[in-house]
Specification:
Strands 3-2-1-4-5-6-7-8 form an eight-stranded mixed sheet, sandwiched between helices. The chain folds into two domains: about 5-180, NAD(P)-binding Rossmann-like Domain (Rossmann fold, 3-Layer(aba) Sandwich), CATH 3.40.50.720; about 185-415, N-(1-d-carboxylethyl)-l-norvaline Dehydrogenase, domain 2. The chain is about 50% helix and about 10% strand. Strand 7, helix 7 (about 160-170) and strand 8 (about 175-180) form a beta-alpha-beta unit. The model has no long low-confidence stretch (mean pLDDT about 95). By secondary structure, it is of the alpha/beta class.
């Protein structure tokens, strides 16, 4: 029988991901200890979690404390220790050493890292630590976004993986995908390829134009460059730099962060978190330019629920605007579905994490709307690798997206 996770400790509980993850555990009725550098910082995390939950009743399941005063006791009592400190491997290892010193021999240790090597972190402790260590990648804010990646490393005990899988699916209500321990896992690997490619295109075409061209009508809740501003340029840089340094796939160059963007970062531009300096946009600036005709026509069709007809326009429109839009969106389909067999096991895994982690139209949905045979032809014309799954769907005249209970209109609400 899977163990009952009764007590959770969250390290880094004052941060956005720490507080958000703590809210998810506490909202499920799990006793959760919020730890930070000071008790006041931990209290800030508790208040942040209560704000996310829109309820102070959450506090009955939350305890707060500091690392110095409370870590040893809290970790010794925990069934699950959840690390959410800064995305810095050296810093994480400092805390992992303390966790390994005080944890129960069968306590599970998880990191919420968005893409660092799980195996490298697991190697911090002894054999038992490694066998009980894995990644749980919530997407921000986790109380709203239910997509989640579970990332074991080669040495993770299979029973631990099963127990955490059960916790995430059945108690925390996650749309869960298991991924391999590769840089940025699946969601961020696929999503930030698209985001960074759009940042590169903005150097030539301008940020407002790119966000207007590749906006919600292409199947996303928020336009790409506005998304980078929202996430933070420092977070964006950490993810794309990690993938660029540690992979050599067909889209390697798409992960090279633009030099002009890096220069602005050095001058203190981090996006929405630096409102005085901004990022691609400043607070109050328009977040997209005038809609190109192809985008306008697609948006009009989405507004009345004619999603397939909107992608007829996408596939058949002529001109530079349509060609550039197709380059980005077909690149997303190609790159995402080519991660099947490398990062995840099946098409449904890519679809689930992009649909419920990023709130983007999954690649399988786009293939179905375009038509698999036409999609193969468009990919070939764009000189992009054609995923085997798309070829198979075209040959068998089958749909790719298999979640029949999902209304695909949810992925195009932003266009309406």
């Amino acid at each position: 029988m899977a163990r009952q996770i009764r007590k959770v400790v969250v390290l880094g509980a004052n941060g956005a991901m720490g507080a958000g993850s703590g809210e998810v555990f506490a909202a499920a009725g799990i006793e959760t200890t919020f730890l930070a550098r000071s008790k006041d910082k931990a209290l800030q995390g508790q208040r942040r979690a209560e704000k996310l939950a829109k309820s102070t009743a959450l506090s009955r399941f939350i305890r707060v404390g500091s690392y110095d005063a409370d870590l040893a006791r809290a970790v010794a009592e925990a069934d699950l220790v959840f690390e959410a400190v800064s995305e810095d491997l050296a810093l994480k290892r400092v805390y992992f050493e303390q966790i390994d010193k005080h944890r129960q021999k069968d306590a599970i240790v998880a990191t919420v890292s968005s893409g660092l090597s799980i195996a490298a972190m697991a190697a911090t402790g002894g054999t038992s630590f490694g066998r009980h260590f894995l990644g749980i990648h919530f997407f921000n804010p986790p109380n709203v976004i239910v997509g989640c990646e579970l990332i074991p490393h080669a040495g993770t005990d299979p029973l631990v993986v099963t127990e955490v899988d059960d916790l995430l699916r059945n108690r925390l209500g996650r749309e869960l995908v298991r991924t391999s321990d590769t840089p940025a896992f699946c969601g961020n690997r696929v999503g930030f390829k698209v985001l960074n490619e759009c940042a590169q295109l903005a150097e030539t075409h301008g940020a407002a134009y790119i966000d207007a061209l590749v906006g919600p009508h292409t199947g996303r809740a928020m336009a790409p460059l506005a998304t980078i501003d929202f996430v933070g340029w420092d977070v964006h840089a950490a993810i794309v730099d990690n993938v660029y340094a540690n992979t050599r796939d067909e889209a390697h160059d798409a992960f090279h962060m633009p030099d002009a963007m890096r220069a602005k970062m050095a001058a203190g531009c981090l996006g929405d978190k630096t409102p005085d300096k901004g990022g691609f946009f400043k607070k109050g600036d328009p977040r997209g330019g005038e809609l190109p005709e192809v985008a306008r026509k697609m948006k009009e069709l989405h507004r009345v629920g004619r999603y397939a007809q909107a992608f007829d326009v996408f596939a058949e429109a002529s001109g530079a605007d349509a060609e550039l839009m197709r380059r980005v969106i077909l690149g997303y389909i190609s790159y995402g579905l080519n991660r099947v067999g490398e990062v995840v096991e099946k098409v449904a895994d890519v679809d689930r994490i992009m649909g419920f982690g990023f709130n983007w139209a999954p690649p399988g949905v786009l293939v179905d709307l375009i038509g698999a045979r036409r999609c193969v032809a468009l990919l070939e014309a764009a000189r992009l690798p054609v995923p085997r799954a798309v070829v198979a769907a075209a040959e068998r005249n089958q749909r790719l997206f298999d979640a029949a209970h999902v209304d695909i209109g949810r992925f195009f609400h932003g266009a309406q």
